[in-house]
Amino acid sequence: xxxxxxxxxxxxxxxxxxxxxxxxxxxxxxxxxxxxxxxxxxxxxxxxxxxxxxxxxxxxxxxxxxxxxxxxxxxxxxxxxxxxxxxxxxxxxxxxxxxxxxxxxxxxxxxxxxxxxxxxxxxxxxxxxxxxxxxxxxxxxxxxxxxxxxxxxxxxxxxxxxxxxxxxxxxxxxxxxxxxxxxxxxxxxxxxxxxxxxxxxxxxxxxxxxxxxxxxxxxxxxxxxxxxxxxxxxxxxxxxxxxxxxxxxxxxxxx
Length: 255
Prior knowledge:
The chain has 255 residues and is α/β, with parallel strands linked by helices. The protein is 43% helix and 15% strand.
């Protein structure tokens, strides 16, 4: 991709499947990648897997002090951030009437509050240099309904709308977009052959395919793209609820 060589890129939730694939893709593109995750052991594994990382650190995206400290460290040690992949997220599955408020708050604090805190910290650095790209990991859950996913769907819908508003507030210096994966093959995947057969392309996505979309949207090849959500789902929601796929789904992806 054009324009990624040498760029400083931070990835939250970097130790997860999509985060790892995205870190690897940006390293291959010549970017300087900072991996951020709350799981210290997983970060250590990532550092061993990807020796080309420019840096890494623990980050609790739901904690304002942790976010401030992490991004101050990035700027002090590496310079102003140029690309953010805002990828950290969690999930909890319950029928709506059985949702514990503690689970609602936990998911929202990471997926919504965390996305906001991280994006704001990155945007302040980018505003100072008058350039940057912020990409959010959203989900098809933020676009259509799925049973037992009221928490996750509500949070991802909020992230999509936040991305649109950010794109207006931060233009023309900073571009902001959301990526909406459907079923992606990760160690957390609980879906099986029935769900895969319901996808028009008859398979689950790969983390590397999501990473490729992130790389394109961060690159100069996407210089005129902002304020949009990009679905990468093998055609999962192309037929809307008439496809029967969304209504029947019982398990979803956590980034």
